[in-house]
Amino acid sequence: MNLSNLRAPKKANRNRKRVGRGMGSGHGKTSTRGHKGQGSRSGSSLMRGFEGGQMPLHRRLPKRGFTNIFRIEYNTLNLDRLVELGETELTLEFFEKKGLIKKKNGLLKILGNGELTGPITVHAHKFSKSAQEKIEKAGGKAILVA
Prior knowledge:
This protein is an alpha/beta fold. The chain is about 20% helix and about 15% strand. The chain contains four helices and six strands, in the order H-E-H-E-H-E-E-E-H-E. A three-stranded parallel β-sheet has the order 1-3-5. A three-stranded parallel β-sheet has the order 2-4-6. The protein is elongated and about 80 Å long. The two termini are about 55 Å apart.
């Protein structure tokens, strides 16, 4: 590859659509708005989801359930994933460096899916019962971080 065969990606240099510039442009006269009606008038902007006066879909559908605004979300990791890391001391900083904790101040919960081969020390905000049992059974420590 050299400068003589470099090209811009497809559609990178498309001009914007210029409407109302004569019949020869293909977008003249009604300027792609059609004839008459609310959408053809100047200043017309409909609210999102407007269906011409018909009851909108978001109001026709039944509302169900409840959203708890005090919910605490945890990033979850299984034991089999911890074994793959090949470390004996697993801290929150280590998880963050590896990109396993999504948010900057995210909480971490360890789940018990998988088997441990050797003793490991895990620091986390929460452990499932099965995870804690498996870690301690393998001779490791499950340390809760406040």
